[in-house]
Specification:
Elements lengths: L1 H5 L7 H17 L4 H12 L5 E4 L3 H10 L2 H4 L2 E4 L13 H10 L7 E4 L2 H10 L3 E4 L5 H10 L6
Parallel strand pairs: 1-2, 3-4
Helix pairs in contact: 2-4
């Protein structure tokens, strides 16, 4: 109930507290850790690239991700669907424009890596970014895709 009391518009009832708890539990189930991704982020940063996250994730999932893995600590910036100035989910374009602004680069200098063509890659290309469709667990292909853009990863 404390969470409900702190959120504008959520009545602090037992039923609403249960709904919020269910949302939190579902978000926790969706959080996955890929150790190879952490290695890739570190390699990109060592090569001077800015690395960010653009996500439709809920606040629950992000808090859980922060606790489970250190990837968020490696990133230069994060843009979420609930970020001020975005307030829309992918495939909306606002998140991509915000990420480009935070990266401090031109759209054609940015690469979006995502696991969903329709909500990650297609909208990124609409704003002028390059795109890499990531198949979870296929790090060999991911490294080959980066190589197509002149970025070598171990």
């Amino acid at each position: 109930l404390n969470f409900c009391k702190n959120q504008e518009g959520i009545e602090p009832t037992e039923a609403n507290a249960q709904i919020v708890a269910n949302m939190r539990d579902q978000a926790e189930l969706l959080v996955k850790s890929f150790p190879e991704i952490e290695s890739i982020i570190k390699q990109l940063k060592e090569q001077g690239y800015k690395v960010g996250l653009a996500s439709n994730s809920s606040t629950f999932a992000i808090e859980n991700l922060k606790q489970k893995i250190a990837i968020l600590n490696l990133l230069d910036f994060c843009v979420f669907s609930y970020t001020e100035g975005v307030n829309e989910v992918k495939p909306g374009l606002k998140m991509f424009h915000k990420a480009i602004k935070l990266a401090g680069c031109k759209p054609e200098e940015a690469i979006m890596v995502g696991d969903k063509k329709e909500s990650d890659i297609d909208p990124a290309k609409k704003v002028g970014m390059k795109g890499i469709l990531y198949i979870p667990g296929d790090f060999k292909k991911l490294k080959q895709d980066f190589a197509k853009f002149g970025i070598q990863l171990k």
